[in-house]
Amino acid sequence: MAETKNLTEYYIQADPIIIPDSFEGYPLRYFNLPLHYRDDLNYVLIPYGLVQDRIEALASRIFYDLTINIPEQLICICVLKGGYRFFSDLISKIQNENRLQNNRSLPMSLEFIRTRSYINDYSSNQLEIIGLSDLNNLKNRNLLIIEDIIDTGITMVALKEQLEKFQPKTIQVVSLFTKRRKDKKCIFKPDYCGFEIPDHFIVGYALDYNEYFRDLEHICILKESGITKYKINDNNL
After folding, report:
1. Rounded CA gap, 141 and 137, in Å?
2. What's the pTM?
3. Known catalytic residue: 151?
4. Which band of pLDDT confidence, cut at 50, 70 and 90, is reported for residue 127?
5. Closest Cα partner for 161 from 171, 146, 174, 176?
6. Is residue 60 part of a domain?
């Protein structure tokens, strides 16, 4: 059993796969993409299959870590909207671990939240959490926040600070993506991460651009023409 634990601990990394700035992606012609998006995309950055494999590895690592260190119920918190697909797949793969492992188990409950941010350069970090009916129920509980992408990290820092006011036992964060920003460094590092990506605007796998592209399976980079095409007209706001 010790060898199995070591394989999980040392060979499945909690740190992300790093996609370098020089990576040019995969040509669209090699993938089955929705016709209504083909002219709007530049290239595929991460194919759907690689996303799924990485989530499966993260699920194994999270299951191992939490059943060793936190052998009690875990509250898994989905940050909507973009995080729902990652949340669903990650939870499903952790449940598979529960079924396959005979000597360890990780009971889970699920919560769904949305955040409304009031953060700007001239005020302290404030965040309204929408969805949890009674935040006092988080006291002395173990939390796993499941997020799709961490960009600047400002919102996640504020979310953790807000949740800490309700005295949970532990808070851990898993994000499918973190972004390497050109203009500023991300101020938050998640406990588990799938991929570190260059400073591109990505869509697909439930990540949207003005509510478009959520139905795209692969992680793709938008063309400038696509950004312009789906831009919201200020006059309609």
Report:
1. 8
2. 0.86
3. yes
4. low
5. 171
6. yes
